């Protein structure tokens, strides 16, 4: 039965949801209030969809995450040459699509600087949406997730609007509200190309009825100034992401402030973040760092300091494979073997987190208390 359900989801997503989107109109469901996306604690945010089971940022991955009980799905947003928002973790395409095998696009390969790093490949900003739609998605980490790699070629790159349409359709059959948690990628880079995404993201949400702080939405970024800009044009909730402590948000590198993520993680830094954001998304090591032997250490005061500043805490990224887990939660020596992710998550729940990003949202749902 479970395999049949997953197959149905994948086929529906691969065919651009033609079945899912039409089905609710022909099915009569009782009119009952939808459950809030924020009713559970901690929130389970499906990181790039159910990316531990299906190639990331595909309608199949988002669909499966929702049926697994995720409260929110997380699309990373980049933009095309003709200004369409699409979901990819990076604007460079060869890691997660078959673009390198497409001779018609061979001349698009180039070298450019992204956020201070030289990157070689094919980039979304050099393609129209119609061209991107001819590409097919491949698994990002096939060595770790060979099962996902068997689905290479099954999915196309989804637009932001297609993801919203999927969420709204599945809300009807799930009888609950499902949140959307986009990350704006490479903001400074795209602004330099006259392809800013911030206003377009807010306007897309507005057109679809997502307005105000009560909407089931968080907009996230590793940069700072774009979040401050968003604070001035929308009441949708915002989340400040945190990279490694010694790193700087790239927009702060450009303007030369010297601000680091470590500065932003102090009590005073968190109070400053709370001026424009509702929540923070730290690497989970900010909350419980690892010891030299890769076991979990003692919790820091990050959660308490963030709560004191009025911020929710949604750390990333919880993954089930041994290669990503603390040593005490691994199973055997094989890096791609599945360990005890539920055990790791329970330790972080005890540390007081309010939400978490996971590639295996079903395990995160099982780790928290039953939520009705």
TrEMBL record:
Gene3D superfamilies, alphabetized: Phosphatidylinositol (PI) phosphodiesterase
First-level EC class: hydrolase
The protein's name in its UniProt record: glycerophosphodiester phosphodiesterase
Sorted UniProt keywords: Glycerol metabolism, Hydrolase, Signal
The UniProt record lists the keyword Iron: no
Region forming the signal peptide: 1-22
Keyword Ribosomal protein found: no
Domain GP-PDE per the UniProt entry, residue ranges: 42-368
Regions that span the bilayer: none
GO BP, one annotated term: glycerol metabolic process
Organism: Parnassius mnemosyne
